[in-house]
Amino acid sequence: MIRIPEPASSVRGETRVTQVTTYPLVYADGESHNVEALAIHPRTGQAIAIEKTEKQASPAPVWIAPTSLSTSQDNVLRKVIDNVPVPGASGAGFSPTGDRLVVRNATHAYVWWIRNNDVVASLRGTPVTIQLPEQRQGEGVTFSPHGDALLVNSEGPRQPVWKVPLPEDADVDDAVPAGISPSLAEGTQPVNDNDTLMIVIAAGAGGSGLMLLTYRVIRARRTSLSLMSRSDR
């Protein structure tokens, strides 16, 4: 896993990464796994990964990294849940306050409320399911900076980033961080490409797994990490 500093709010378009911190990750079983959904909890800093299943009935295990990561030795990802109800998981992200986690596939997003920062226990509950707009190849997802909507992207050149408002059961007023105004937008709408910054870097993920990590800054504010990746077995 790779950590980079957040770009300045004035940055637009592409930017050069000059400070990179690498945390080697390995799976506890010593194997490589197909993971495209990775999220970092904003309060604890803990990384969580959800496997991408290729078949509807296949289990989707959840792996979690140590809270404190080392740059000099392997950090072991432990499997903490055998299956979450998201076939084909391709992206994930926490809300700005860490009170919710979203995981998406090609057609839907699934939002869990995170209680007491306990991601594992919360993922055993029932998520809120949200229909996503049709996309060329929907992959990434994160929350808007004020936490009242989802931002979803698609693979391919010049693809729009869509803003999808959250239903009431996945959004409450006290989820909005202090000093950030709620969005005035109504309905699903694309975000202007000029407001999107993308940095693509490669990171090892145990065994021979290779992942492409996509970090997006929307409207000059930091969003959660989203992941477009493929594990080469």
Which value, in Å, is the CA radius of gyration?
A: 17 Å
Total number of helices: 1
Topology pattern, helix = H, strand = E: EEEEEEEEEEHEEEEEEEEE
Query: pLDDT average, as an integer?
Result: 76
Structural class: mainly beta
- What percent of residues adopt helix (DSSP H or I)? under 10%
Which shape, going by the Cα principal axes? Answer: globular
Largest sheet: 5 strands, mixed
Our measurement of the CA-to-CA distance between the termini, rounded to an integer number of angstroms, reads 18 Å
The poorly predicted ranges are 173-233
What strand line-up does the widest sheet have? 3-7-6-5-4
Total strands: 19
Give me the oligomer status.
single chain
Strand content: 35-45%
